[in-house]
Amino acid sequence: MPGKSFFIDTSLCTACKGCQVACKQWHDLPAEKTVNRGTYQNPADLSFVTYKLVRFNETVVDGKLKWLFFPDQCRHCLEPPCEMTAEDPGAIFRDPATGAVLFTAYSKDIDTQEVIEACPYNIPRTARDGTLAKCDMCNDRVRNGLLPACVKTCPTGAMNFGDRDEILVMAKNRLATVKKTCPKAKLLDPDDVRVIYLVTEDPMLYHSFAVASNSAFDISRKVALNKLLRPLTRLTAGL
Ligand code: SF4
Ligand code: SF4
Ligand code: SF4
After folding, report:
1. N or C: which end of the chain has fewer CB within 10 A?
2. Residue nearest (by alpha carbon) to ligand 3 atom 1
3. Which residue lies with its CA nearest to atom 4 of ligand 1?
């Protein structure tokens, strides 16, 4: 299982958006037409052509104004509910070498709504023809010994990538350091995902899908149960 992982230290993120731009550049994705919504978060959300989005949130914590940044992307779950729901390795599969969870052009042939609803982090987005898209871990780069484009471009050290064992050690060490000045600091779902965030405040202040609403384990069990019950549900519907 080890494969690869990311460590995203939001305490070092300056919201320069270099990662967001590098992701578009590497994948040759177009810019999106946007309007001024009174925030630097732009575009408003992830989309079929935006796999990485730096989320901005202004909030007051303990009487002090805080500006929280969250570079959002697919977490490459260890037991991915999207893959389990699709039940079609031609549409969604994992690269056994890296652990990257990958969507293909055949994703338009599966129940995409079910897959979207299964994702605990609200990541997959659809094109007009129904094809699903999201961050692919820059698997082509990683397979050729390169860093993901977003990691390579990050100027502050907020984004890190490497062998999972080393990344877990890095994340835990950094957490111990950050906790000395930010007691609320924590790692988000480190045992369930390959993209591990460090936050210094309540994760919900960064993004409503910063952590899974249930643990990935619970979600996987729910998906497995739905699969078991599906023939019964269809039979009942047919009666
Ligand atoms: Fe933050 Fe690094 Fe992305 Fe800039 S490139 S927004 S510092 S994670
Ligand atoms: Fe984009 Fe690649 Fe980073 Fe994923 S790993 S967010 S695809 S640049
Ligand atoms: Fe799939 Fe969502 Fe997990 Fe990404 S974050 S691997 S899309 S379930």
Report:
1. C
2. 82
3. 16
Query: Is 154 touching ligand 1 by the criterion CB < 6 Å?
Result: yes
**Two tokens at 111?**
């129940």
Tell me the β-bridge partners of 70.
55
Q: How many CA atoms, within 13 angstroms, populate the side-chain half-sphere of residue 47?
A: 15
Q: For residues 137 and 133, give the distance between their C-alpha atoms in angstroms, rounded to a whole number.
A: 12
Range of the domain at 93: 1-239
CATH code of the domain in which 218 resides: 3.30.70.20
pLDDT tens figures, 64-93: 999 999 999 999 999 999 999 999 999 999
DSSP, res 47: B
CA of 7 to the centre of ligand 2 (A): 13
The verdict on the CB of residue 91 being under 6 Å from ligand 1 is no
58: left (phi > 0), else alpha (psi -120 to 50), else beta? beta
Give the count of domains, the chain. 1
Kindly give the distance from the C-alpha atom of residue 215 to the centroid of ligand 3, in angstroms, as a whole number: 13
